[in-house]
Design goal:
Layout: E1 8-11, E2 18-21, H1 24-40, H2 44-47, H3 55-101, H4 105-125, H5 138-151, H6 170-173, H7 181-187, H8 200-208, H9 227-231, H10 240-266, H11 271-277, H12 281-307, H13 324-339, H14 347-350, H15 355-359, H16 362-380, H17 387-401
Antiparallel strand pairs: 1-2
């Protein structure tokens, strides 16, 4: 016959009496304690999903909200500036036509003034034109060609016309090469990126090649071929003045055509706009962010090239009184893009929404603002600051904008 095992006996250390120990009662006690704990828990922590969301998810939600506001504003600002740039280039085309219709000190002066207005507008636009460095979409990659068509630099001035010791050189003096729009496009970057026939700086080369007061005479039409040249078979349209006139005219027309084509690609339903709209909302902001950083690198590379001793190239501070004051407008634009409170959003959002605030902590924001402001001042003063000092400041900004400097 099997008998049940009696409960364990435990001696009370104080009284010395023996008591039975009923272990199942411990589970009952634990259950009661758990129920009491649950009853005391703040129900709001269970009912509010945000309270149990991980940090990455919360950051992603906030980032998407900010990006949904910033991305279209960046694109709209670029569109407005591109429209302005095209209008300035169109005015340049008209001023060149007036110069060629009636060459004079006044007409060449007006053309030079308008050229500078167009260059300033282009440099204000420049931060938006490096989207291909933030996304490898084939449409964005075309921006590299647009930049090369609109403002290729550095260039070989003797590739276009007589320059320095290179007398009777360049396309102007090569009568075997017809000066047509098709020819100029084919010759642009033909075997080297410095073989430039198109864009703002190619036009600059012709307008500023002679600094004397009679420079406008280089654009006067010649109707009579000198006897010696006529006997050698030279035609009227092959005279250097006439070829130079044709070259400058076509350069201005092609520049206007190219800026208008880029504007159409940027506007609604254009290839660039369509490609941009297909990106995820956060990536839209990221391609602009990378474009802004690439623009700073581009400015540094231009100044580095100028700082090298290459006498065959037009110095950056020659001809149109230097390009650094125009570059300062690029820095001003970047400062606005990183720090300006955005128009078009409600006041609560605009008080906190800026690219710098999203990317950097307070100390980094202050450093970036100071560096950009210093750069702008240095470039506007043009000759007062050595290029090496500006390059050092640009490198500092590049370091501040690097991913390692951003908030986690």
């Amino acid at each position: 016959m099997t008998t049940s095992k009696p409960p364990a006996r435990i001696q009370n250390p104080i009284s010395g009496t023996i008591k039975r120990a009923y272990y199942p009662s411990l589970w009952i006690i634990l259950l009661v304690l758990v129920l009491m704990t649950v009853g005391c828990t703040d129900k709001s922590n269970i009912e509010n999903p945000a309270s149990i969301a991980d940090d990455a998810r919360v950051k992603r939600i906030l980032a998407e909200k900010d990006a949904s506001l910033l991305a279209p504003l960046f694109w709209q600002q670029a569109s407005r500036q591109l429209e302005e740039t095209h209008q300035q280039i169109r005015q340049l085309q008209l001023s060149i036509e007036q110069l060629l219709d009636s060459p004079s000190k006044d007409s060449i002066s007006r053309a030079k003034t308008q050229w500078l207005q167009a260059l300033n507008s282009y440099y204000t636009l420049l931060p938006f034109l490096f989207l291909e460095n933030g996304n490898n979409h084939s449409v964005f990659k075309q921006l590299n060609q647009w930049r090369f068509s609109l403002a290729a630099w550095p260039l070989q001035p003797a590739y276009l016309d007589s320059y320095d010791i290179y007398a009777h050189s360049g396309i102007v003096n090569d009568i075997a090469l017809p000066i047509t729009k098709s020819t100029l496009r084919k010759q642009h970057g033909f075997s080297d990126d410095q073989e430039v026939t198109l864009g703002l700086h190619a036009i600059e080369t012709l307008l500023w090649a002679k600094s004397d007061k009679a420079a406008f005479k280089r654009f006067q039409a010649k109707h009579k071929v000198p006897l010696v040249l006529a006997q050698s078979g030279l035609q009227q349209n092959e005279l250097p003045n006439n070829r130079r006139r044709q070259l400058l005219l076509l350069q201005s027309e092609l520049l206007s055509d190219d800026s208008q084509s880029l504007l159409k690609q940027w506007q609604k339903n254009g290839l660039l706009h369509t490609a941009f709209e297909q990106l995820p909302v956060i990536e839209k902001v990221m391609v602009f962010k990378q474009s802004f950083q690439s623009c700073i690198v581009h400015l540094r590379d231009l100044l580095n090239h100028h700082n090298s001793n290459n006498s065959d190239n037009i110095p950056l501070d020659s001809f149109a009184n230097g390009h650094r004051p125009s570059m300062s407008l690029t820095i001003d634009t970047l400062e606005s893009l990183y720090f300006a409170t955005t128009a078009g959003v409600d006041s609560a959002e605009s008080s906190r929404l800026s690219l710098a605030r999203i990317l950097f902590n307070a100390q980094q924001q202050q450093q970036l603002a100071q560096s950009l402001n210093s750069l702008s001042t240095q470039m506007r003063n043009n000759s007062d600051t050595a290029p090496a000092d500006i390059i050092a400041n640009l490198n500092q900004v590049i370091a501040l904008l690097s991913p390692d400097s951003e908030n986690g």
